[in-house]
Amino acid sequence: MARIIVDDVHCKGCGLCVAACPKGVLALDSERITPKGYHPAKLVDPDGCIGCSSCYMTCPDVAITVVR
């Protein structure tokens, strides 16, 4: 099982990772705000993540780490 870690310091909530996820297991977290004032991405279905790294490769701010 894979999972992702989103670094709130660097995530600007652009949503590119959400769009790139082939399994649709990412979403912008409407309940949290980063120190810079953005809604960060979050993993909404940990069991659905396949560790493909599409989110990591798409993130322009290198705010995502994939753990396998």
Automatic annotation (TrEMBL):
Keywords: Iron, Iron-sulfur, Metal-binding. Residues 2-31, 40-68 form the 4Fe-4S ferredoxin-type domain. SUPFAM superfamilies: 4Fe-4S ferredoxins (SSF54862). It holds the Pfam family Fer4_7. One of its GO terms (molecular function) is metal ion binding. This is 2-oxoglutarate ferredoxin oxidoreductase, delta subunit.
